[in-house]
Amino acid sequence: MSICVKICGLRDPASIDAAITAGADMIGFVFFPRSPRSLTFEEAASLAKIVPAAVQKVALVVNADDAFLTAMCAALDPDLIQVHGSETPQRVADIKALTAVPVMKAIAVSQPEDVQRAAAYEGIADHILFDAKPPQDDAKALPGGNGTSFDWQLMTAWHGRTPWMLSGGLTSANVGAAIAISGAPGVDTSSGVEDQPGQKSPAKIAAFVTAARAAA
Which end of the chain is more exposed for a tag (fewer CB within 10 A), N or C? Predict the structure, then answer.
């Protein structure tokens, strides 16, 4: 089994180089002001220049409006848009029509019913990202990137046809178990390869990609 590996929330050339050198398939750029990993369009445009064509650029947005999406696409020219808010299936379809870019819909998970919600996006979203639901007792929690995980066994009940990835609290130490338990064909990490929020560790990036590949 070949594992697709995404490193999200990259903000500087060193971390991008580390992800590319390690062999990541996707690099995520965050456009959400509340996140310590958020970029301006100008910063993203500069960083995009060093990403080779073989590595997919993913733009993460949260409930973005049409004007924001249009400006973001002009700056980054993403290969994939990751929507991490409350976007409905219709909104996902509208974003695809507006931007002509494939869309990955993030689904927040803490119980079996959350996994099944993804069925509404079948045939609409191009990818699905199953991520841990933000802690309810933390008012400052972000839609993703909180370093928390969910019960990976919940994914064994998912039989959808849409390509999907697993996220939420993944590190080099647990990604092998996460893949084995969930059967995930792809994994995504952000906080799991950081020394502190927003500051990526090249060594942790390399270790994560190596561990994910070994799990395959």
Answer: N
Please report, for the domain that includes residue 118, its CATH number. 3.20.20.70
More confident residue, 171 or 142: 171
- Strand-pairing partners, residue 190, are none
**Calpha distance 160→185 (Å, rounded):** 12
For residue 18, the SS3 value is helix
Closest CA to 9 of 25, 24, 31: 31
For 46-81, how does the pLDDT look when each residue is reduced to its tens digit (9 = 90+)? Answer: 999 999 999 999 999 999 999 999 999 999 999 999
Q: H helices of 7-158, where?
A: 13-22, 41-48, 66-76, 89-99, 112-116
- Count CB atoms within 10 A of the CB of residue 85: 14
Provide the token pair at 126. Answer: 């191009």
How many domains is the chain partitioned into structurally?
A: 1
Tokens coding 6:
């995404």
Range of the domain at 50: 4-215
For the entire predicted model, the pTM comes to 0.92
pLDDT in tens, 101-157: 999 999 999 999 999 999 999 999 999 999 998 755 544 555 545 567 899 999 998
Cα dihedral 14, 18, 24, 25 sign: positive
